[in-house]
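Troubleshooting: if your tokenizer reports a length mismatch, compare against these two reference records.
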Amino acid sequence: MSEGRHTARLVLQGHIIDSMMLPQVMDLIMDLGGNFTVEELRVGQHKTDPSICRMEVYAETAELLDRIVQRARALGATAEHEQPVRVDKVAHEGVFPEGFYSTSNLPTEVLVDSRWIPVENIEMDAAIAVDRKAGRAWCIVFQDAKPGMEVVIGHQGVRVTPLERSRQTEIFSFMGSEVSAEKPKKVLIAGIAHEMRHVREAGGRILVVAGPAVVHTGAGVYLSRLIELGFVQVLFAGNALAVHDVESALFGTALGVNIESGLAIEHGHEHHMRAINRVRSAGGLRQMVERGELRSGVMKSAIEHDVEIVLAGSVRDDGPLPDVITEMVEAQRQMRIALRGVRIALMLSTMLHSIATGNMLPAGVRTVCVDINPAVVTKLADRGSWQSIGLVTDVESFLRELALVMETGRHG
């Protein structure tokens, strides 16, 4: 290919074909207006063998070359002779140094003192702190930045590892992140159930992010059953899910509508406020359960089965319940703590809580996004071709089928 005036040598290694790293880097270079020459390409002969590609990249200007190299790094490429990571110190609390490296959610390493160190607790849109003496690197958000802390700047000495496409015939590889209302839902749900069993057998944790529609549609009983069967270890929600769940347990209604008949009850619009008052009177949801005042529902099941619960508030909340975290940064902190060890996340009919959760998850965590609104599912499922499933469907039918499969042990 024709040679420009500025060149750089890139190395791609690992499962560069299964992860689509190689064709993505080639497309990137050409799309940005550069050229490349492949100098070496060795493809692993067995599925466990890594592959390696060395290429020379050409660009007409130094600025274009720098842009190509930076974008290629984000896809997993490294420089042939990688230089150690560069750092700068935090000068002001809560402020990263100018030019800080902004993370993706892919597995990331930094080169410190001739050694590649994995970045702990990786999540997108954060920075990387480094402790040279301890040989550690970890993600930090703005609130974690303290004066004197060393933070990675620039792209030098940083490498990411794209996710590998599974070679197994499993449901996440089969369906990918394509969103459609036409998917074979029973097959999908059976595959999701199989993945959930596998996660639990391996000691991983399952997260459910749930909106109030779970209660409104009558699906709360099925979520409670999944909790009782041991397939939910973490529950994220807002004030509304908990309030309407308690209202349902106390009065049989959600927002004043009878859950079984679907009919509005006289003075039923007051029920959610009366439910809030009962919880506040008891001192909280756990106290209400311990007193025997809350005898059914998602929150009762979650409390009795030691599910880690984080209820994050919003400006529109009634009450809110004493259990709801009303300070946003503290709610984020509690969510990050609870996410450790989570291997699969079910995001059920709640756009904002699901987006917040998705932003905190490493790319390797499988996500299942369920909503009746296709636009919401598309937004939530866009987390990588082989790690997400998007289902446009009623959350009640999804949870009913999932609970049935889990209870009967069917594999589909």
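Reference record two:
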Amino acid sequence: MSNSWSRPTRYLVLIMMLTASVSFIIYARELVESLAIGALLAFFLNPLVTLVNRRIHLSRFWIVLIVYIVSLGSIITLAIVFAPVIPEQASNLTAQLQTMSEEIQAEYFTAPIDIMGFTLDLSSYRSEIPSLDPETWVNPDIILSAVQATSTNIGWFAVILVTTFYLLQDWEKLKAWLFALVPNGYSDDANRLYYEIQNVWNGYFRGQFRLSIVVGLLTGIGLAGVGLPGAVIFGIAAGILDVILSIGPIMVAAVAGMVALFSGSNIEFFNSSPLFFAVVVIGIFLVIQGIENLWLRPRIMSNNVNIHPAIVFIAIVASLALAGVLTALFIVPVLASIGVIGRYLYSRVFELEPWSDRVKQTSPSRHIVAPAESTAGEEVSAS
């Protein structure tokens, strides 16, 4: 047997490994993001695959394969059905947008507008409105950039699909392999860490689901209250796209504003001025988003992942400004997971009891030791 490494050597190797890992994450950020999305999809779908596997008694490989075949078959079918009409629809949409742009310029940018006694003159801004004429924005450079972006996105999408497939297929094996790396005497701690981090992510998904329902209801009720046509549809869309944080609500608000501008309201009071009604509709979205981002999201996420509401708000805003929507979407559970690991390390460094009853059992997992009641060696079934 070879000689054991000295303590300085072990620390040096550990530092080198950490440095290499951080460097890889920085330089291969897009790959890491795709792998992370695949891991999240596998984590989210794993309970469903496990449940189906138990009910129909097929091997896990065939269950995952069937899910993928059905999903890809649906996507291919939709592509075959809708691909022939895409060019025509795109041409019609371009023509409609051009017509709408001309109508807006003619109605609102040629003469002063009277809004409830206030005069608004937008004629000086007419020259700054971008043209929607295809000849001005369709050129070889834009087409080439679009093709390159599409090819890149398809490649990363394929990475996500493959990653999700293999993680779903070998989830239990991968978990067992990771736990086998834990030094002797620390398996119970590893089980508990896994259990608490799993609770954090489950709580985050439950919180996001609650937020989507609340935002959808508030949006639908608010738009119906001012008489916007299709208020229920916009409410459903706002609830579903709320998971994309600021981008989703902006997309729904923009479409709702256009509908309000050209369709008007079902209530006579709001039909005095189409522009005024559009401003009211946009204002409803802004109020709901303000309530959600300043009060609802911090409090709901705080209750579900055990983080102070102020930290939730600051983390989301900072992530949107510095790293984009994808990072902001998962920054809360990531911070909560880091907090779980940090509390454990702090307790071990200062020889304190690392576990307490602060986390209640909500979804026990196979091979996961229960928090306080279980003893070493006890296992509970997977979610």
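Descriptive notes for reference record two:
- Residues 38 and 163 are 5 Å apart (CA to CA).
- The chain has two domains: 24-104+139-181, 184-383.
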